[in-house]
Amino acid sequence: MERQLDFLVDKVLEQLEKKLGEMGSGSAKSQASGASHAGIAAAGEQTAAQEASNRQTANQPTGTEALASASAAAASTAFSQAHSGEGAGLNASTEPERISQVPNPKYREGMQELLASTPARIGVWRAGVRPLTKTMLQLRRDHAAAVDAVYGEVSEETLKEFSLFTVETKYDNTENYLKRPDMGRIINDEGVRLLEERCQKKPQVQIVVSDGLSASAVDANLRDVLPSLYDSLQSYGLSWGTPFFVKGGRVASMDHIGEILQPEVLVMLIGERPGLVTANSMSAYMCYRPRKGMVESERTVISNIHRQGTSPVEAGAHIGTILSKMLEQKASGVKLVL
Amino acid sequence: MDEQWIQSVGIDVGTSTTKMIVSRLRLGRMSSTFSLPRYQIVERQLLYASKVHTTPLHGFDEIDADAIGAILQKEYEQAQISLGDIKSGAVIITGETASKKNAQHILHLLAERSGDFVVATAGADLEGVLAGKGSGAERRSVAIQGTIVNVDIGGGTANAACFHRGKAIATVTFHVGGRLLRLGPQGEVQYVSPNIQAWLNAKGLSITVGEVLTYERIKDFSIQMARGMLDYLSGRERQVSGLLVLGQPLKENVSVDELSISGGVGQLMSAPTPETISDVSRYGDFGPMLAWALRQEREAGTYPMQWIDPEQTVRATVIGAGMQSTEISGSTVHIKAELLPIRNVPIVKLELTEGHLGDPQQLRREVSDVYDLALRLFEKTTGSPFALAISGITYCSYSLLQTIAEELSQQYRQKFAESRTMIVVCETDMAKALGQALALRCKGQPEIICIDQVRVEYGDYIDLGEPISGSIIPVIVKTLAFDEAPQKGV
Amino acid sequence: MNTKTTVLGQTYQFRNLKEIFAKANEEKSGDQLAGIAAQDSRERVAAKQVLADLTLADIRNNPMLPPEEDEVSRVIEEGINEKIYSEIKNWSVAELREYILSHQTGDSEIKRISRGLTSEMIAATAKLMSNLDLITAAAKIKNITHCNISIGQPGVLAARVQPNHPSDNVQGIKAALYEGLSYGIGDAVIGINPVIDTSDSVKDILEMTKDVMTKWSIPTQNCVLAHVTTQMRAIRQGAPADLMFQSLAGSEKGNRAFGIDVALLDEADDLMRKEGTSTGPNFWYFETGQGSELSSEAHFDIDQVTMEARCYGLARKYNPFIVNTVVGFIGPEYLYDSKQVIRAGLEDHYMGKLHGLPMGCDVCYTNHMKVDQNDMDNLGILLAAAGVNFVIGVAMADDVMLNYQSTSFHDIAAFREVLGLRPAPEFEKWLEKMGIMENGKLTPIAGDPTIFM
Predict the structure, then answer these.
(1) Could you tell me where the beta strands, DSSP code E, fall in C103-179?
(2) Are C70 and C110 in contact (CB under 8 A)?
């Protein structure tokens, strides 16, 4: 044991030296990259009653309505926000802003502690009673990214990579999509024809991808969520049908698709209503035997899937677990015991 | 499942006293219904605290194992607890006891007699931290701006742990404790610990076994020892007082603002002043006078530290051990229930940098290096030779996950072909995805246990408990890294 | 009851009161989605014209949602003072509008007449008012309430500090709370929307906020905006709650979608009387918002302004400390752009005030609406001019939990400064004691959250 401990001590020392070396050159960088806001976004797609009730945390019997949610990953957000390398272009908030602007805080160390504890825009200081210019511009920039996400389109490249063909709902255009959620719940006639022609009927698992309220959520997360979900389905020995993309989709379009393809379970990966923290948040809505007239409480939801929220690969793996439980219990939503 | 209770036991076998507690910890759901599940220990309740027993010894340095066993059995009966209900906890053999001849034997025996998932552990640093948690110092540190030190003074050692804003930032252990000087009813010296000899010499003090000490000399000795410890903690003087330190010195840049004293001596600080030599020696040692000396210093206010009353004194360590040692893993993990519990697995760390994450060649070399280190360190086993702790991954894409899983599994199967269970501990929430990726590759050879959201360091050992409600497992991280005393003695 | 009129040469015949009410509304995407909105401006003005001549008795005698079928209707009916109603039942809606706006009518006259009005009558007047009418009328009405402190006095603009956190991290909530307090925000309530619907989590947050209030002797009230049943569980476990919160809908069916009914509200009211921690007598906090009934298909083809008024009719039963219309949270299918949001905010504030309620407004929007922060500045100033009791304060207006934008701590400070408004008197005294405010102005240390550490 003595000898083994010596090895261990050597290794520790070596690592320490390495770290010290890195700190000399790399500390500025890690500080800068620690700045992006961590947090979550609301589930995009829900009715106003759910929205209102979610302001008080959906606890009503209908249960599963998604909303701005905390995430399992939230505990480790400080960690995930520090990543600087990948995908900077996708993210509205990669610039460093998490520095206190308060000129002479009474308790300087405490200021850092406060900033580290929340993604909220605190310690921003003021010009008279108005925000500093930089803070104001940051807010406007994040809002611009959110608006772009609503009016954007999923890239052809993403769809091609996963061989997803496209069907449309009756949404017609974005303005109409926003004003008439009912139209986003119905696949148009051409779409129905395509589904009947190209999709396997009565699959065990049907995977559907939709832009919902954030096209960029699909571009940002599908590459990580979908293959992880495939792996999970494979691990559980489940089979799946022909996946496809729904343009202008609302969550309840699951019901119409359910009528057409009659899967045992269906999962829809859909862009959420963009927030300022991220415009790229995705939700997974899952349902056992979807059909017309399903109520919200019959759907199971995992929301807030994005790189600063619920880890996309972890979400993909967990969705597989939920689907297998749905098949086992022949239920979804509030009736499903997880 | 919204909530679940687990029972946890704490046992503290100290140089002079032995105590046991039973607590229950409540796991509560700390996630919304539309996010991945996450559970936390939301409440820790003390169910039963044993009385403080005198630690049974054979002579001066051998614990009477059977007598300890008998004490525990009685306490379990009294507490109306069956061993099968205990899912977690810690046994601690504190202070000088840990370097007694048969400590290992005792630990083993206690672990067997105290429930299916109770761990045996020792180490002054961990004890100090647990006492600091049990005494309330950790909690208090959140409410103040400065640093608080809790010193748990028992029979053989004083374990000090410093807390700042809710975190343990430093520990130090002193040869300060009641049993270091044992006295007969008239003040006759029965035993002086050899550990304080160097300090005694430096102070020009001489105490020999057999001589009879006067009340005044014991008082002087107590004051000197109390001041020695306080000099060291306050940084007033560390040359001579440093001779009282056991193991590693206190980190340089720690300055202490508040002080609390727990342990048996902490409790005696509120006892009446010992007036006579028989008051002093009523426990067969100089503990009451040491406590009095500390109280004098507190009242005189000569050190620039604010003295705080601890929430617990004599039971601080055992309460810390029983109630604060258990953590739980993240709730989306990859486990095989039938393989659990697994105890005493050493940690090997794979600390990934941007370089490793960006270059598969570099990653391969790093994994290879770390595995080779583990090969040298640990014996081959059909179980788990080590648990691989992965850190440094901030965002894990699917392609990165595949690369990591490929390297980890392929090399593991080559180098640890006989191991039937591979254990991986991730810092960030990715255990289910990584476990799944590893399992798809290994196909049961080895089986994969992959958990997350537990922080571990080099030199830690971990215990993984049986799953609670399917997917959450209790984890005890045992920090033995800085501690050499138990090994030396064994 | 006359249901017919001619506008610019075209004759309009309306089927019933529901149709008149719906078509008399200013344009709202929610009424369009429900398929009940006016086809064009001309039809809209025709409906207004018909509505103006209806008597209050016409409205009461032709219930759009009969009391036998709906308990919200029953609550509204039972609240009517028959003596006052009989004095005014032959007034037309136009006359009522003019009475409210008249120089001869002051706060106490309005308060008296309010007791004889149903929610539908109040909604009817809103439909005949321009934005400035709504401001002028509301500005007359002062509804002062008291929980631990009083708010609603003339010249006072209070604010809720809303320090939400995406995972209910208590330290993170505290951080944003400190920031808000340091800007003089938090006199209406320290109110947190929780993510986690367990009583444990709610209790933790209530205890933390209470600790902060006690430590710094802050004269305000705390609240965690969980579902009423979760709050009740937490309170029964000993959690210190000064206010009980609940979202309301304007129909029984709508309330069922929220998981509540009148019996449950009564039970919660009783619990607060026995175990609430505040002084009272007002200890409820309600939230509402146009469109919620339609979204749960509980609107019975009644327009969203009328349904909103009915929420206030229900709220009135419980003498709340604060009522908040979350005006732009609900989405573009109900309020499409800034014009609609601003209109709705002014309507709700006026209708609530006329019900005798302590109205506040969450001046807010989501990112899929055609609204931006400038529009919030506008509505905020309009409401502050109309005498709104309180608004919502969120760090830089960005709520990191609910993912929408509201008004910021800075905005509230600016509303106060520009219009010469002050925090609630007891709270202002405390701000002075803390050195955050002097003579109604923020001091140089305001904006430093670490003064509370």
Answers:
(1) 145-146, 150-151, 158-161
(2) no
In this prediction, residue C408 carries a pLDDT of: 98
Instruction: Name the minimum distance, in Å, from the CA of C195 to any CA of chain A.
Output: 6
Using CA atoms, how far apart are residues B348 and B458, in angstroms rounded to an integer?
6
Is the CB of B34 inside 8 Å of chain C's CB atoms? no
| Most distant CA pair in chain A, distance | 76
Q: What is the pLDDT of residues A222-265, one digit of tens each?
A: 999 999 999 999 999 999 999 999 999 999 999 999 999 999 99
For residue B32, give the nearest of C195, C200, C453 by CB distance.
C195
What is the average pLDDT value for chain B, to the nearest integer?
88
Sequence-separated (6 or more) residues with CB below 8 Å from residue C298: A49, C249, C251, C252, C253, C254, C256, C257
Show residues of chain C in contact with B42, CB under 8 Å: 200
Task: Tell me if B29 and C453 make a contact (CB, 8 A cut-off).
Answer: no
pLDDT single digits (tens) A76-93: 222 223 232 233 333 333
Domain C145-452 sits in CATH at 3.20.20.70
> Do β-strands C189-192 and C222-224 pair in parallel, antiparallel, or remain unpaired?
parallel
Among B100-109, B229-238, C11-20, C232-241, the minimum mean pLDDT is found in: B100-109
Per-domain boundaries in chain B: 3-121, 136-311, 332-471
Indicate the pairing of strand B17-29 with strand B53-54.
Answer: antiparallel
- Calculate the CA C374 to chain-centre distance: 21
The ipTM is 0.95
Predicted model pTM: 0.84
Q: Please state the length of chain B.
A: 490
Largest CA distance in chain C: 70
- Give SS3 for A259: helix
Per-residue pLDDT, B59: 74
User: Could you give the CA distance from residue C419 to residue C425 in angstroms, rounded to a whole number?
Assistant: 16
Of C167, C200, C453, the CB nearest to B42: C200
Predicted confidence band at C60 (pLDDT cuts at 50, 70, 90)? very high
Beta-carbon separation of B459 and A318 below 8 A: no
- For chain C, the structural domain boundaries read 145-452
Backbone angles phi, psi at B177, to 5 degrees: 180, 155
Please name the fold of domain B136-311. Answer: Nucleotidyltransferase; domain 5 (3.30.420)
Q: Is B351 in CB contact (< 8 Å) with chain A? A: yes
Give per-residue pLDDT as tens, B405-454.
999 999 999 999 999 999 999 998 999 999 999 999 999 999 999 999 88
> Which CATH architecture is the domain B3-121 placed in?
2-Layer Sandwich (3.30)
Distance (Å) from the C-alpha of residue B20 to the closest C-alpha of chain C? 29
* Integer-rounded Cα radius of gyration of chain B: 24
What is the residue whose two structure tokens read 């403080």?
Answer: B52
